[in-house]
Amino acid sequence: MRYLARTADGRPLLGDDVGFVPLSAVAPSLDTVRDALSQAAIGTLPAVDAASAPRIDPEHVRFGPPLDRFGKLWGIGLNYAEHAGDLDENRPDEPASFMKPNSALAGPGGPIRLPPVERTERVTAEAELAMVMGRECRSVGKSEVENLVAGYLPVIDMTAEDILQRNPRFLTRAKSFDSFLVVGPAIAVPDDPLDLESLTVKTIVNGRVAAENEIRNMLFSPAEIVSFHSDVMTLRPGDLFSTGTPGAEPIEPDDRVRASVERIGSVEAPVVR
């Protein structure tokens, strides 16, 4: 696995399971992580071993969001049958998608900022696998998606459930408060085709696993999600798809939330008001 990341002050990095090097030390023509997305999608990222600089232990790196600015932020609701049942919702026949504003995004470490209680009294946190697009595409089939996605990262998605329960038309507002999407520190770029279906996604609050499920139990696979939405609009490098959660957990100030995606990584953030 290779990883594309940025330091908190914006320096682009390329890493592997041992450590990180400046992206420019291995690919001088790539000035930003965004510049590397297309190479990540088609499997031509250079090896970290080829760098002209020594690896840095990730423990010594303060990470920011892996992109200076993401593109479209898509979310998929009710994508695990068990989660839909928990919410007393019927299984959707098509992806139950929504979009979030870029202002909702927070980098690794958050924090997750709860809105004032007069706005919402019940916010839930949800761990999800996210995909980052690496190449522009329109109306593509599922078999083409593997060479269009740059990589994957864990995210924590939030929902103001009491707002949503008042009226399903309030979904956008319920999902769009500042800090309601915390992205992981690095985009994981598989060296070989990755069997996503066998991986487990976990929502963890205060060290307790609140929900978990395998990606194989999604109603719509990651490839189906990209293919479906490519028939709606042009997808571009940096667009992000958050593919749905195995389960949500109510959160309060002083909680710590962690999204863990097997083999991909994890992201954690404290909750404040």
Write structural notes for this entry:
It contains 6 helices and 17 strands. With 273 residues, the protein is α+β, with helices and mostly antiparallel strands. It folds into 2 domains: 59 residues, no CATH class; 200 residues, Fumarylacetoacetase-like, C-terminal domain (Fumarylacetoacetate hydrolase, domain 2), CATH 3.90.850. Strands 4, 5, 6, 8, 9, 10, 14 and 15 form an 8-stranded mixed sheet that branches. The protein has a 5-stranded mixed sheet with strand order 7-17-16-12-13, with no helix packed on it. Strands 3-2-1-11 form a 4-stranded antiparallel sheet. β1 and β2 form a beta hairpin. 44% of the residues are buried.
Brief digest:
By secondary structure, the protein is of the alpha+beta class.
| Regions with little confidence, pLDDT below 50 for 5+ residues | none
Order of helices and strands: EEEHHEHEEEEEHHEEEEHEEEE
Please give the domain count: 2
Overall, the morphology is globular
The N- to C-terminal Cα distance equals: 37 Å
Task: Let me know the average pLDDT.
Answer: 95
Using DSSP, what is the number of strands?
17
Helix content: 10-25%
Number of helices: 6
**What's the gyration radius in Å?**
18 Å
